[in-house]
Specification:
The protein is α/β, with parallel strands linked by helices. It has a single domain, classed as Rossmann fold (3-Layer(aba) Sandwich), CATH 3.40.50. The protein is built from ten helices and ten strands. The strands form two sheets. Strands 6-5-2-7-8-10-9 form a seven-stranded mixed sheet, with helices on both faces. Helix 6 crosses helix 9. The radius of gyration is 18 Å and the shape is globular. It starts with 16 loop residues before the first strand and ends in a 5-residue tail after the last helix. Bound molecules: S-adenosylmethionine. S-adenosylmethionine binds next to strand 5.
Length: 283
């Protein structure tokens, strides 16, 4: 189970730089994808992996020459592949690099690429899913990896959640929401937090509860969790989420939040967290 992230040679295609902490995120999504796909293989007729913010498929770790596979290529690098992959990104240079890498490294898979803003094109993304029937049951795992609060609208998650779907969501709680609350998000004219959480009434709640929270980022992550709970997902509080910290200064950055409606999904998440921590000393 414990495997080091592969190290790759530069292939001349676009390879964005990421912080050192990104390796932990990659291990989590990789470990979860492996467990999910293998265990669900015989239980569902089709398993689908959706990467809403897929990027180009490879990343270079900042201040190093280390190149690693990013989320879409990690989800392909598993023993029991998903039956279908859907990769979306609004950046045409990144999605074309990803297309090239997938065609070169995994030519025989069932894959769709959507080059678009996920929030205004969610119906198109949903139309790529195999139709669910009573005799053809489809289960999906969706990785949601935005840069910042303004990149995701809760209604996108809400529409996807009408099907059978687990989510792993990067909630930009500290590095964005907490940093920008007083300058931007607290003002009614800025709807980024309203849109991300699907709750336009949070300001009064935050003002009445602010003494109870370490910072706005924790409140924001918990609000997102409660909104997912209202959609029927299991959520018991912030300890369900992984708080990711910077490697050098150990400063909190964001929460990685997993959501499933099934207890088995939560069991896999717990294991994925454990294995991803164990791998730190393999770096
Ligand atoms: C943090 S990167 C994610 C990269 C990838 N998941 C990885 O493993 O490295 C965020 C990506 O989201 C894309 N993006 C930002 N806003 C978007 C939107 N509204 N719709 C689709 N893609 C978006 C960016 O082009 C970028 O590639």
């Amino acid at each position: 189970m414990i495997e080091k992230l592969p190290r790759l040679e530069h292939d001349g295609l676009i390879t964005p730089e990421v912080g050192q902490w990104a390796e932990f995120k990659y291990r989590l999504v990789w470990n979860y994808a492996k467990m999910f796909s293998s265990s669900m293989k015989s239980r569902w007729d089709a398993r689908v992996y959706i990467d809403l913010y897929a990027g180009s498929g490879r990343s270079r770790i900042e201040n190093t020459n280390i190149i690693v596979p990013a989320s879409p290529l990690l989800a392909l690098n598993i023993a029991d592949r998903f039956d279908k992959y859907i990769f979306c990104d609004s950046d045409s240079a990144k999605i074309s690099a990803l297309k090239e890498r997938v065609a070169r490294d995994c030519p025989d898979i069932n894959v769709c690429f959507v080059e678009a803003d996920v929030n205004s094109n969610i119906e198109e993304i949903i139309s790529k899913l195999p139709p669910y029937r009573r005799d053809f049951r489809v289960l999906s795992f969706c990785f949601v990896d935005p840069y910042s609060t303004k990149n995701l609208k809760f209604q996108t998650i809400q529409k996807l959640s009408e099907g059978y779907m687990d989510f792993l969501v990067l909630v930009p709680s500290i590095m964005d929401a907490n940093r920008n609350i007083d300058a931007y998000y607290i003002h009614e004219s800025n709807s980024a937090v309203d849109d991300f959480t699907g709750n336009p009434h949070w300001r009064d709640e935050w003002r009445s509860q602010r003494d109870r929270w370490d910072n706005f980022g924790s409140y924001f992550a918990d609000l997102f969790g409660r909104q997912m709970k209202a959609l029927g997902y299991l959520y018991n509080g912030l300890s369900d989420m992984e708080l990711v910290r910077s490697i050098e200064k150990n400063l909190p950055l964001y929460h990685l939040a997993f959501f499933s409606r099934s207890k088995l999904g939560r069991k896999f998440w717990k294991e994925a967290r454990k294995y991803s921590d164990d791998q730190l000393d393999l770096l």
